[in-house]
Specification:
Length: 275
């Protein structure tokens, strides 16, 4: 009975509303099968007899851990190193024009990977920053990487990835910034410690208030807002604007745009904006 539990329209509507209220993800009717498949596994593992019983559980105090697991399950996480490469070229160009060589006049470079998934994006940002410093040191770089999924954040912290993830990474960068595994880790690469140390990973819900110390030179929120409706997108874009430093850059995915949203950003090029 558990294995074949039916996802009724009413249960799907309740779950969709809960997910939307918590984290802004819009689970429209086309996502019903995805929800049934992914949460069906949670039902089987937890011994729940129906989606309605599962919903009742995650909306109680004792169901808070399962609620986080539910959000993990319905979040889509697809990424790879240096995805949408033009953004990293732009980042490198801008960093090379910043700060000069006078250490007394420059602030630490701060970058936010908002929706970092399993870590490929923030590590790509860290490598790009290091390749762009031109005499500056790693002490000048601070990268915050956040995601709503605790599962992918744990994976990101490890910095360990199968070699299939590196097909588009230049060989010289692999040699410089990654270590090849041996023994049980044969077939994997691990991000070197000096790069891992530049990145702070944390679970964070973009629907929550942004802390006042969130001030960045660059914000990458790519292929995240496609899961939100227009109202949520507009709210989020304006929140990002106010935690960018003057002349800071905001990057969205190549399939995304701020067209149709009310915001104060200056358009630079497709998927790139500036405060």
């Amino acid at each position: 009975m558990i294995a074949s539990a039916e996802l009724r329209d009413l249960d799907f509507e309740k779950i969709s509303r809960l997910v939307y209220d918590l984290c802004g993800i819009n689970l429209h009717d086309g996502k019903k099968e995805l929800v049934r498949a992914r949460l069906g596994k949670r039902l089987r593992e937890g011994g729940f007899r129906s989606f309605s019983e599962y919903y009742r559980h995650v909306t109680t105090e004792e169901g808070r851990e399962e609620l986080i697991a539910m959000i993990d399950s319905v979040s889509t996480n697809l990424t790879y190193f240096f995805r949408e490469e033009s953004h990293f070229r732009r980042l490198r160009q801008v960093i090379q024009t910043m700060g000069g060589t006078d250490s007394k006049k420059r602030e630490a470079l701060r970058i936010w990977s908002a929706g970092c998934s399993s870590g490929e994006e923030p590590y790509s940002l860290a490598i790009t920053a290091m390749e762009s410093l031109d005499g500056r040191t790693a002490r000048d770089v601070r990268i915050l990487a956040t995601d709503i999924s605790t599962r992918v954040v744990r994976k990101a912290v490890s910095g360990m990835y199968p070699k299939e993830k590196f097909q588009k990474v230049p060989t010289d960068l692999i040699r410089k910034y990654f270590q090849y595994g041996c023994g049980q880790w044969e077939g994997y690469y691990r991000v070197r410690k000096e790069i891992r140390d530049l990145v702070t990973f944390s679970r964070f819900n973009l629907m929550d208030p942004f802390p006042p110390d969130f001030q960045f030179n660059f914000i990458f929120c790519r292929n995240v807002m496609i899961y939100f409706d227009k109202k949520t997108q507009e709210m989020l874009v304006n929140k990002f604007y106010h935690c960018l430093r003057e002349d800071g850059y905001f990057f969205v995915g190549h399939s995304e745009s701020l067209t149709g949203l009310s915001h104060p950003f200056k358009y630079i090029e497709p998927s790139v904006y500036r405060r």
